[in-house]
Design brief:
The complex is a heterodimer of chains A (about 140) and B (about 130). Chain A is of the alpha+beta class. Chain A is built from 4 helices and 5 strands; from the N terminus they run H-H-H-E-E-E-E-E-H. The relative contact order of chain A is 0.18. Chain B has one domain. The two termini of chain B are about 25 Å apart.
Amino acid sequence: MEKIGRERIIEVLEEVYRDVAGDPEDSFQSFLDDFREVRDPEMPIYWISETIIGAVERLSGRQFGWYVEALKDEYNFTGEFAFICVEPKTHRCLTAITDDLGNCSVSVILPITAIDEAVRAVQFFLSLAVEANKGGEM
Amino acid sequence: MTEQITRALEELASEFGIQDLDQFFQSAWQSSDLTDAEIVAELIERTVEDLLDQHFLWLHVVESEDCERLIPDGWFSFVAVHPRNRMCVTFQDKKPWKDISCRVQIRTLQDAIDAVVTLAELIKQNLQKEG
């Protein structure tokens, strides 16, 4: 998979978001801006993760198994999401990580409150998809 | 197997000071305090590990009917990953969709036993497939 530039990722994020929101006039960037400023608990927060997942699958040309949870502090969504991503052919959990201290986790937590963070999240999952394609040790 | 699972559940439950296991399962899913439902999930996970004599990385979701008050409705989803080869051992190809989690209802002791059996069987099948 060739390296995909920031502009292309934003373009795809916007395309996917319009499908997710069902509104051809809406924009992902403005949705993230609204969320960051208002933190309205009634906002459809999972549109953000659906958009990220849709963009990853569209850009990689592959589908994965996902679990997503929008994290909350005591009252509101924080803008962080816990993701689990599983490669459906090998069943390998691509988000399983072991830190330097040997602690293991099946999920990764990513903040997605601005377009740059969304781009980083997509780039991160695309890098996992590349590793999955190689089929080697991660 | 039922007796073995019940014994394992009772042994683990005693670590949490739980005396009447059936009563505990029956009340946990209706309690507004999520702690009991979290303990239910942990009991299930550790009993599965006990049964299979293996450890896994777990993620569980305590489902709730009321998203504002978060009172559990007795449904749980479990995701287990093998710690060495990172395989998702709760993966299911339930045509037409694929699922990375195993969803079970636990409202009684019998439900808990069934949940352990379901999870252990699924994990065992996946481990066998992966050699």
